[in-house]
């Protein structure tokens, strides 16, 4: 059996992709916490539910990014004999928890907005507008800090989406404040709250779906196992491939295992080592799999065992 123990690119330099952006996560946490404080004060002074909903969203941002940072810290810990992949999977749990927090916020906003329609409250549109503008500017800084991170890690994508959602929420509050200032129609405030809540749902669902895909150890979404098998079969001396499995440990760290049936003369000779090297290079070069475990076996071996997976 051959094993490629090369560290995946995600962990190059001693950590996951998320670790590269650690300082930016810290800055984002600080910004989200400051926005939350400003929006809570603004909500109390203006009577705006939309500002309070946006403050709750900002607080979720701070908590969510803190979870991401905590996951980053754990993911830097070295593997042990009991945890051979270390704590990399913690990042995925963090992303899933972020999504659940977002859905919880949506439920609270929906309930509060419906109640506000039946129990109207006087809202100071001008103050509501001013606070929302400050929040939008701060969120723009957070988005700039994480602009390169969103495509590198599921965990960082969750943090980026939360800040983006909060920025869009600030836009909704700005529009609501303008409507109240220009027309006096105070129902614009709970409507803006509902808009903020509805923006949360698709992002939370997408993040939870992707995290679940990893946690269920499904095949990476950008990988076609039929193509992987075809590439392996094209190597001279390979007769068949079975027990082919691929999954993701954490963002940027796909792994693969397979049983490769080869000709008897290759196994008896000295070429099996070269063949194994070529096979591992094949999956590494074509499918960006840095950690592969390939078992070379003679024809008929599969009938002797009980593992008969395709």
Task: Please tell me about this protein's structure.
The protein has 310 residues and is α+β, with helices and mostly antiparallel strands. Helix content is 63%, strand content 11%. It contains 10 helices and 4 strands. It has helices at 22-46, 49-75, 90-118, 125-145, 154-183, 188-215, 225-233, 264-268, 272-287, 301-304; strands spanning 2-3, 238-250, 253-262, 291-298. A 4-stranded mixed sheet has the order 1-4-3-2. Helix 5 (154-183) packs antiparallel against helix 6 (188-215). It is elongated and about 85 Å long. The two termini are 19 Å apart. The model is unreliable at 1-15 and 304-310 (pLDDT under 50).
Characteristic key phrases:
alpha+beta, 310 residues, 4-stranded mixed beta sheet, 10 helices
Tell me the strand order in the biggest sheet. 1-4-3-2
Helix and strand element order = EHHHHHHHEEHHEH
The percentage helix is 55-70%
Give the biggest beta sheet.
4 strands, mixed
Low-pLDDT ranges: 1-15, 304-310
Distance between the termini: 19 Å
- The number of helical elements comes to 10
Based on secondary structure, the structural category is alpha+beta
- Which word captures the global form? elongated
Supply Rg: 26 Å
Quick summary of this structure?
This protein has 310 residues and is an alpha+beta fold. The protein is built from ten helices and four strands; from the N terminus they run βαααααααββααβα.
């Amino acid at each position: 059996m051959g094993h490629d123990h090369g560290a995946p690119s995600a962990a190059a330099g001693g950590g996951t992709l998320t670790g590269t952006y650690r300082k930016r996560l810290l800055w984002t946490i600080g910004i989200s916490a400051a926005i939350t404080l400003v929006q809570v004060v603004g909500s109390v002074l203006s009577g705006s539910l939309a500002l309070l909903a946006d403050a709750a969203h900002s607080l979720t941002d701070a908590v969510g990014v803190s979870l991401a940072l905590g996951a980053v810290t754990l993911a830097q810990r070295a593997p042990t004999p009991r945890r051979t992949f270390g704590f990399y999977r913690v990042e995925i749990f963090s992303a899933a928890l972020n999504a659940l927090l977002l859905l919880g916020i949506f439920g609270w906003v929906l309930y509060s907005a419906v109640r506000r329609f039946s129990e109207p409250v006087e809202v100071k549109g001008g103050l509501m507008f001013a606070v929302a503008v400050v929040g939008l500017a701060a969120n723009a800084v957070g988005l700039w800090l994480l602009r390169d991170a969103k495509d590198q890690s599921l965990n960082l994508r969750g943090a980026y989406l939360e800040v983006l959602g909060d920025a869009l929420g600030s836009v909704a509050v700005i529009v609501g404040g303008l409507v109240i200032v220009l027309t006096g129609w105070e129902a614009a405030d709970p409507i803006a709250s509902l808009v903020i809540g509805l923006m949360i749902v698709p992002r939370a669902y997408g993040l939870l779906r992707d995290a679940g895909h990893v946690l269920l150890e499904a095949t990476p979404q950008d990988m076609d196992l039929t193509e992987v098998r075809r590439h392996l079969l094209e190597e001279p001396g390979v007769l068949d491939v079975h027990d082919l499995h691929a999954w993701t440990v954490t963002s940027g760290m796909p792994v693969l295992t397979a049983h490769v049936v080869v000709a008897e003369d290759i196994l008896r000779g000295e070429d099996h080592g070269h063949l194994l090297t070529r096979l591992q290079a094949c999956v590494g070069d074509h499918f960006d799999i840095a950690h592969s475990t390939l078992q070379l076996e003679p024809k008929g071996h599969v009938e002797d065992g009980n593992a008969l997976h395709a």
